[in-house]
Amino acid sequence: MRVSPVLAGMRAYPFVRLNEAKQAVAARGVEIIDFGVGEPREETPAFIRQALVRALESEPISTYPASEGLPELREAIAGWVQRRFGTTVDPDFAIVPTMGSKELIFNLAQVVGGPGSRIAVTTPSYPVPSRGALFAGAEVIEVPLAPGRGWRPDLDAVDWDGVALLWLNFPNNPTAATAPFELYERAAELARAHGFVLASDEAYSELWFEGDPPVSALQVADRTNVLVLNTLSKRSAMPGYRSGFAAGDPEIVAALKRYRPNVGVAPQTFIQRAAAAAWTDDEHVVEVRERYRAKRDVLLPALLGIGLQPSGGDASFFLWLRTPRGADAEVFALRLLEERGIAVAPGTFFGPGGDGHVRVALVPTVADCRRAAELLASWP
After folding, report:
1. Is 235 left (phi over 0), alpha (psi -120 to 50) or beta?
2. To 10 degrees, the CA torsion angle through 266, 270, 271, 274?
3. For burial by CB atoms within 10 Å, which of 92, 169, 323, 377 has the most?
């Protein structure tokens, strides 16, 4: 068969390589504590699970979901945006539910841009925006996140000629940095001036440990060419539900509604009803955030004790740490895995800007974080 040249020339998804390393260590009988993959492992709140069950029981006949999503879900999302960010988003024309955020992060380059366009992604970064751009036939332009700038991009240093799409992600994966509102204002201004779309992945907006809550690109006065993505995976411990949304410029949302029936990614109706319940409630989010704080308080001192140094911000559920004495990130991570059974993600998984760093995802239980801290106390 003829495999896509993009797929044939692409290295394995970085976390596939991490999984292979974990399997090799586990085969020796070592119990793994996995801080590598950022998959929440908290219990989904009971009221959300109950909403899902009610939805299943009330709809014995299964039908294809509409690509624009249920009105009750779009209204719940609009209500949350109003409560959280103090801004109004039209539920009928400016919101579309998604299957988590990853599917749209990958697919957006097929809606905005396409073959021959230029798509700007930050580095170090979550790898999916650049991979989606390559599969869409676009050229990837890397915009560095420099530690001297608080892991934020210098947007005025970018050549915007031919750029169709700019991806921002704050709170940031992997650096845990946040963005000031002025960054979104400038990005939106440049998007209008140069005719590109500003896509803001805000999956970690509800997880922060210091200072004020993170702001959103939805708060800019003129949302022309602005699209914001968010998800329930982190906020409400619902990664397996695959439920999120995109909101912003109605013209972009209209284009998504035309595109999405072609690829069949509308969320299932029963998931949408559970998601509506999740977006309507804010109290459980405080509890989720405090659990991550407790994990951070247990684990961070132990990580500092082995020579890692803080390098990133105080948001998301990630710790972004410099390796001791600038050690090679992949060598350091492999040694930690093999000698203590503790898996972390090398910063190089997130692009060249991640050299000399590791990312620690605070997703194991508090008990596992305590056990990891004990293992670290006697290492190296």
Report:
1. alpha
2. 140
3. 169
Task: Give the CATH number for residue 29.
Answer: 3.90.1150.10
Q: What is the pTM of this model?
A: 0.95
Do 213 and 260 share a domain, yes or no?
yes
- Tell me which amino acid residue 5 is: P
How far is the C-alpha of 237 from the C-alpha of 278, rounded, in Å?
Answer: 10
**Residue 187: CATH number of its domain:** 3.40.640.10
From residue 235, how far is each of 57, 70, 166, 207, 288 by CA, in Å? 26, 20, 24, 7, 7
> How far apart (Å, rounded) are the C-alpha atoms in residues 168 and 143?
10
**Residue 11: phi, psi to the nearest 5?**
-65, 155
Task: Indicate if 225 and 311 belong to the same structural domain.
Answer: no
Q: Is the domain of 305 the same as that of 247?
A: no
30 vs 363: CA distance, rounded Å:
19
For the segment 164-196, what is each residue's pLDDT rounded down to a tens digit? Answer: 999 999 999 999 999 999 999 999 999 999 999
